[in-house]
Amino acid sequence: MPLMDLAFEHRMYLPLAPLLAALALAMERLLERWLPCPPRRRAALVVGAAILCSARGTRTFLRNRDYADPLRMWESVVAANPHGGRGHLMYALQLTAIGRLEEAETHYRQSLELRKDLPEALVGMGYVRMKQGKFDEAERLFRLGVDHPRTNHVAHFNLGKLRERQTRLSHALDHYRWSVAAQADYIQAWESMASVAGKLGKTRVEIEALRQVRAINPHAAEPAIRLARLLIRADEREGGDPEEALKVASSWLGRRDVDQRAVLECVAAAQLATGQLEAARATAEQALRRAGDMATRRRLEAIRHADRPGPVSVPVPSMLQILGPWRWSCRRARRLRAVSTSCRDSSSIISSSLVNPVLRS
User: Fold this and answer.
1) What are phi and psi of 28, to 5 degrees?
2) CB neighbours of 144 closer than 8 A, spacing ≥ 6?
3) Which residues of the chain have pLDDT under 70?
4) Radius of gyration (Cα) for the chain, nearest Å?
5) Are 143 and 152 in contact (CB under 8 A)?
6) Residue 105 near residue 125 (C-beta atoms within 8 A)
């Protein structure tokens, strides 16, 4: 549970402190009077206390099960207090996260009816409208969220996503910039900015966005390797820096949670670009023992047989290529390609309204 949520939890129970203190004093006085009593009465007191403790322990255990699942927790909050606007909002956000958009819209509406000071509900309803393809209504709701400082960054981020759906990439990039200007550690906006900048061919912007992503989450492999490849491929005017690329890529050597083939290829390319010809050949030789597809083998052979230092063309990898066998087996990847091909072939039979909206996005 995040630290801020724990702090909120403590503040929520803080008013119980005086009551619990008074209860403890009362129990102490009661025990002072009842303990010198006859054995039967004492046994009844002990049994009653044991039953009370067991009941409270069971109730705590069941409540902890609710805390383990955010959806279940907020569902219980709404059931216990149907007139609480924030409970409806938090439940709607959880429903949105799992794709139950119609139910989420109902609870967004209820939260706004109960409380007018919840701009998060406006942005949430805008997201539902965007997923439903109602772009004008979605933009209107996002604009309302922009006017509130608490949701300014989220609203701009969603406006950027909306502009991407409308293929207005330059406008999307502007909204992502405004989003990170409002909240500098909003990693989703930085990631989306890097993606859009890459599509627009703005390599310098893409590199700076990936640097920010890596600074916020240094444990993420995909943006780090992607940054290293861009630093190798780009020239100095675009922000290229092979020395930095070598440092970034080398930090992932030996990690079991990352496909080492991609890491070794990136390290070899960076070594070649920085003039370390012999080291690049040795690293490429090591990567060739792991390489599977012919395209990768050809790139590594080019590095191994290079007769002079210099930059090489290194394609930017996808998440699937980076995580490799740690996340996906080759068999599963082939199955996904077969399913994708089958879906395209049957698109004339299946109505587009039945296609998963997440895949369409």
Assistant:
1) -65, -45
2) 119, 122, 155
3) 1-16, 31-42, 45, 61-68, 291-292, 307-361
4) 29
5) no
6) yes
d(CA 85, CA 102): 18
What is d(CA 246, CA 261) in angstroms, rounded to the nearest whole number?
15
Cα–Cα distance measured from residue 34 to residue 82, given in angstroms and rounded to the nearest whole number: 43
| Other beta carbons within 10 Å of 234 | 19
Phi, psi values for residue 351, rounded to 5°: -65, 140
Write down the pTM of the prediction: 0.69
Beta carbons within 10 angstroms of residue 198's beta carbon: 18
Half-sphere exposure of 60 (CA within 13 A, CB side): 6
Q: How far apart are CA 163 and CA 57, in angstroms?
A: 52
> What are the Cα distances from residue 222, in Å, to 62, 106, 116, 217, 324?
39, 37, 41, 11, 11
Summarised one tens digit per residue, pLDDT across range 217-231 is 999 999 999 999 999
DSSP 315: P
Q: What's the token pair of residue 62?
A: 């069941």
Tokens of residue 138, six digits: 């979605």
140: its two tokens: 């209107």
Token pair of 102 as six digits = 């119609």
The count of residues in the chain is: 361
Does residue 15 come out as left (phi exceeding 0), alpha (psi in the -120 to 50 range) or beta? alpha
Tokens of 120: 């998060």
Nearest in space to 179 (alpha carbons), one of 146, 158, 156: 156
Asked whether the beta carbons of 254 and 263 are under 8 A apart, the reply is no
How high is the pLDDT of residue 305? 80
User: How is residue 276 written in tokens?
Assistant: 């370390």
Encoded tokens for 29: 């006085």
Q: Which two tokens stand for residue 16?
A: 């119980």
